[in-house]
Amino acid sequence: MVVRLPRVKLLLLDGHSLAYRAFFALPVENFSTSTGQNTNAVYGFTSMLINVLRDEAPTHVAVAFDVSRQTFRLQEYSEYKAGRSKTPSEFSSQLPLMREVLDALRIRHVGVEGYEADDVIATLTRQATAAGGEVVVCTGDRDAFQLVTDKVSLIYPVRGVSEVWRMDPAAVEEKYLVPPERYSDLAALVGESSDNLPGVPGVGPKTAAKWLGQYGDLQGVVAHVDEIKGKAGENLRAHLEDVLRNRRLNRLVDDLALPLGVEDLERASWDREEVHRVFDGLEFRVLRDRLFQTFEVEADEVEGGFDLEGHVLDTPALLARLADPARAATVHSLVVGGHFRGGVGDASSLAVAGDGGVAAHVDLTALTPDDEAALAAWLADPAAPKVLHDVKPQLQALSTRGLALRGVTSDTALAAYLVRPDQRSYDLEDLVVRHLSRELRTESAGASDQGQQGMLDLETDDDSSVRDAMVRARAVLELADVLAEKVEETGGTGLLHDLELPLVDILAVMERTGVGVDEDALTALEADFAAKMRQAQQDAYDAIGREDVNLGSPKQLQEVLFGQLDMPKTKRTKTGYTTDADALADLFVKTEHPFLEALLRHRDTSRLRVTVEGLIKSVAPDTRIHTTYLQTIAATGRLSSTDPNLQNVPIRTEEGRRIRDVFVVGDGFESLMSADYSQIEMRIMAHLSGDDGLIEAFRSGEDLHRFVGARVFSVAPEDVTLEMRSKVKAMSYGLAYGLSAFGLSKQLTITTSEAQGLMDEYFARFGGVRDYLREIVVEARATGYTATMLGRRRYLPDLLSDNRQRREGAERMALNAPIQGSAADIIKLAMKGVDSALRESGARSRMLLQVHDELVLEVAPGEREDVEALVRREMGSAIDLGDVPLDVSVGVGRSWHDAAH
């Protein structure tokens, strides 16, 4: 007996088919994680999954997979699908990732040994329709057209994963001239090239459809085969066995014994924590944001919102509460309304929440002088504890209004970052759901009682932003408590309170101060790079004798390089042979062709011009550039710079260094000072490994790479050639980043065996480094994380992955994170020390920029010697590396370029 289910709309997806289309639609070289895992197929599949879930709103969903190529069809016909090329390993490695995504989304997936995904789909389709359900099938396999009925529609991708056909019975018949139930008969006659099923020679869809229309179905055609005239009839009779075999093979099996039924496929709310873990690992930040924006939080994910009823204070009541000595130690949360960008902005409002569920909203533009003074005093009181989410822009907005903010005891964005540094987003709404199982909403639409003194009317649309701000403040207060425990569990409490939070104030001042630029020089530089681009373009045209080539078009470059010039082929991609920078550089080494020289010059100059154009747009009215520093982007703890990114100003080429020359000392100051750590990461390596040889190199004061080269190549230091030094330098830094022998061979353009020999010699002389690198991976695999000298953790679950590529990528991160992360912590400590010493000394000189291991300061007249001594002292004593001295290099000049050393 068939059991009829409540309303069912079942969505069935062919996982293999859709992922394979995504793999070839999205360039594999553009989609990979920092561990080297290719992700184009899983990205495209997940993107399409989100779209179809949104558009179809199914009640039930499942994804079917092929288990292997060994199916009953292959047993009957050994040439079945024989024309298909071997599945690329870059694709196969992504199938387990797709299943991880589906598991996180709590979407069931199934495959049956000996059968194909379409057979699973056919079986579930039959079950669902028999129970009165509606079915939507999403697949790129045309065999599924036979399933289409008035209850079953089909979504068929026709271009990548973005353009699709929606096939109902009318659409199938319009395109193929037969109803869906006859499609398999037509395919048996015509053949299917993708399955390597040959059809009747000379018989196309129109002829096959005519026969089926005349005789009813394939059985009717076979029964009247002798009546069919002409060459087509002869060919049909000659290939009748092939046709009948095709029909047996293309019929989908709809009665499989499956481990689940339709009733098991009901959509469930996803595992939000697991979604974060999986999407963080895949580095799908944008896709995750799309997921959360597309679908509302499932009801069973949250326990409700935030109740404001009966707890909203007006401004006088709030100020009285804040001034109450009995509440001096009470923690309050703040949400500042306003904006700040590029050194300018303003704060317009303030939402406050405190214990007992109270909340208030203050219009900063409508305060009396006395009220503003009272609020300013509380905001500036370092003894009044406050918590915020993403404090720096709010601090900046208050500052432009003349309001100081002190006493910040937690920033929930920074706290969440320390708990999970690999997370791609620290949006408050998401963190509230994730850590509190709540939503940023009020429990009830009306949250006020007009008869109660001091209450706001929150029932009007005009007050929705007021209500939202207070809800956010309440959420921040509760979130801060939960995250404090989690930060403690991960050993990050000291980092939060002693390093990251103090750094917020320092960075805020640096952002407001900005760095001076010579606008005329910047404009002239852009014009110069534009002229050099045009010259490089003309040189490229002259080298090939034509000007009809777009140097930015990979397709046109392929035609020139591998067609016209017949150059050695580069790596094959979906769109042809790659023309990326590394490939072109390798080609130029091999051929020294003038077209390649001009093309590479054009690309380099183009990048420099784009950088300069961005800087021109970023100059503020004060003729300074104000970057924004981000503390929660790099998992290693490094600061990031944006709008514009001043950490990305090139320094490796003379042309690139010209850009630094436009950053100049400002009015009223004497010079710029650049101070950076010399070989900080190698010094950390020496300290952490305890290797006597490396420690001796630093203590001796000799050139590190010459010293190491002498040991590795068994020659006197003075006999170390530039080539030897270059090889040793590349290897020393490479080892700290988990560089393999293969990677070293590519970097140095030597054989893998030579690179391995070089590494063996290195480790023979510096055994402490070898032992340290081994031990750190073993320890990280046991604990699940690595840690810097200050205890900053980076969790690496892929260390236990069954996927070799992901596991090896995680091992490289395990080697790199403690060293690069410790370097990041040390420069932050140095910034704290320099800032404090400058303020204590009363100097007018000030910090402007932080770029990885470098600090840039603006020096006031008459302060150079004192500031240099101060900077050397504070940077040199930022941390104790035992027997390894910290070496600080300092330069001074009119511009950033002149201050280089």
From TrEMBL:
Residues 306-488 form the 3'-5' exonuclease domain. Residues 8-268 form the 5'-3' exonuclease domain. It comes from Phycicoccus flavus. Its EC number is 2.7.7.7. Keywords: DNA damage, DNA repair, DNA replication, DNA-binding, DNA-directed DNA polymerase, Exonuclease, Hydrolase, Nuclease, Nucleotidyltransferase, Transferase. In addition to polymerase activity, this DNA polymerase exhibits 3'-5' and 5'-3' exonuclease activity. GO terms for biological process: DNA-templated DNA replication; double-strand break repair. This is DNA polymerase I.
